[in-house]
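WP5 quarterly update. Target: DUF1275 domain protein. Source organism: Lasiosphaeria miniovina. Length: 286 aa.
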Amino acid sequence: MNDTRRGEEAGEERPLLRKPARHSLATQWKRHMAAHVSRDWADVVLVSCYLITGLLDSASISVWGSFVSMQTGNTVYLGLGLAAPTESTRWVKSGVSLASFCIGSFLFSRFHRYFSPKRRWVLVASFTGQFCFTAAAAAIVSAAGTPANKEEAGWRVLVPIALVAFQSCGQAVTSRALRYNALTSVVLTSIYCDLFSDSELFALLNAERNRRAGAPLFLLLGAFLGGRFAHSSFGVAGALWAASALKMAVVVAWLVWPSNPPASRGDADEGRRRQDSDSRLLPAAN
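Structure tokens (predicted):
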């Protein structure tokens, strides 16, 4: 009788003993997601984003005739189209891409600024959103097909362009959040200039040179892969699905990325000032 009662009492106590463990795990996860990611080696992730840009832009320009990330070319196409609007529909697609990119920049930057630029869950949410938009564009192209006429500017062309262009600015905003302003993943001209202007171009150890050299190389590789997709049976849909997979890989990277060590009380004010500085960097021009 006593043994049974003891067993019942022990059974009643077991769930109570487990709750702190579950609570502790949930607390650790919340702290992990709320932590600010470390900038150390984060430039590697940003340089790898150039691969995604090259993949998307080369496939897009090959099939649709407009860019979805690099908006300098789209601005030129838009100007040429306004000068002769009946010669081609490229300016319409370029205009949609440019407008979507600008709207995305407005929203992504404010999202990062409001919730803290380098917080882990903010970076994860940003790239998860980018994945969703890219995957949605891939699904539309897979279902609706690619137009045989490159001049077509119907919904099955304009909607995927708008979705991909909208999300592509998220990478540029992330470079501002992590204070690697040059690694926007959408601009190369200034990187080429800075790379070959570097007084220590041939130095053995030069991290800045390595970043500047890695960006065009990764974009070139992505452009090659995007071109191969565009001229294969997979088409632009294959390039979009591949880019979606790479976006999800970046999400995983941010989930496991090291955090900044907790700041002491004496460093709290400095940390807040630096966070405010990071926030002000977000709307900076390319």
